[in-house]
Amino acid sequence: MATGQDTLWEKFIQPLFGFLIDREALKELSDSIDWETESDRLKNPDLIYPEYYKSQNFHGIKGGYLNSSAAVTYDPITKHALPPNENWNREAVIKAVTGNPLKIIDLGCGTGSTTIMLKQAFPNAEVVGLDLSPQMLVMAEYKTQLERLNVQWLHGLAEATSFDDSEFDLVTASLLFHETPTAISQAVLKEGFRLLKPGGQVIILDGHQKTLRNTTWLTDIFEEPYIEEYAKGSVDAWLGKAGFTQVLTEDVWWTNQLSTGVKSISNL
Ligand SMILES: C[S@@+](CC[C@H](N)C(=O)[O-])C[C@H]1O[C@@H](n2cnc3c(N)ncnc32)[C@H](O)[C@@H]1O
């Protein structure tokens, strides 16, 4: 994996996770995928990567999410990065869903872990996973093929999708906002509001902003370029600013928070 020189990732995290992950199995998985062909197939050739995304080495990995190493190592590392249990954190999203959504979009879906749980929970729903990294989408598609699930994987910008107004019943984003500048998180919420039908719901799972404010040493270690900015903000306030009502943020274990809001019918 190509990383920045002398990063905390190289000094601390990589050796630690290197010990926890099965490198041989990952190499075998990576070698079994024709990354260039598969990424090109999923890539939107007209998409221009924003500077805030392509200029950063997220988690100290050169090229951030735009390479196969990031895509292959994401799941095994995330498994250890969401205490006490990754699935328990993600299940909070499923439990927060009200009603029975028939069209769902998961923004910044990555390798699709939450997207897949949404499809499993709502098998009759049309589910879209959208991400800026074709390599992450390749992994997401690989996982749905294994599970024989029908999810549409789309290469795109969460803050500027190509969907029409009011197409979705549910918009979700998990672990996206700590990786984007605040202005982009706010633009994503505005886009989410546009995409939702009146009465539709938005659900955001991410790092606990209050906790993160007091653990800068942790955020330094993980090398997240925008997490400090994220920690200083308030997803609650951003949701209100985007037009959502019934805004509520709750703790998910001690590391994460879950925010929900509704596109009120009377707001229109
Ligand atoms: C930490 S990962 C989270 C992935 C997944 N949602 C999860 O819960 O594991 C952040 C993801 O957001 C994607 N991303 C970052 N900025 C984005 C944007 N503006 N539009 C779409 N995807 C974006 C990255 O490519 C990456 O896959």
Global mean pLDDT: 90
As residue ranges, the low-confidence spans are 1-8
What hetero molecules are in the model? S-adenosylmethionine
Nearest-angstrom radius of gyration? 18 Å
Structure, explained:
It is built from 13 helices and 7 strands. The chain is of the alpha/beta class and 268 residues long. The chain has one domain: Vaccinia Virus protein VP39 (Rossmann fold). The protein has a 7-stranded mixed sheet with strand order 3-2-1-4-5-7-6, sandwiched between helices. Strand 6 (245-252) and strand 7 (256-262) form a beta hairpin. Helix 3 (35-42) crosses helix 8, helix 5 packs across helix 8 (134-147) and helix 6 (86-96) packs across helix 7. Mean pLDDT is 90; it is low at 1-8. The structure holds S-adenosylmethionine. The site of S-adenosylmethionine (SAM) has 21 residues, from helix 7.
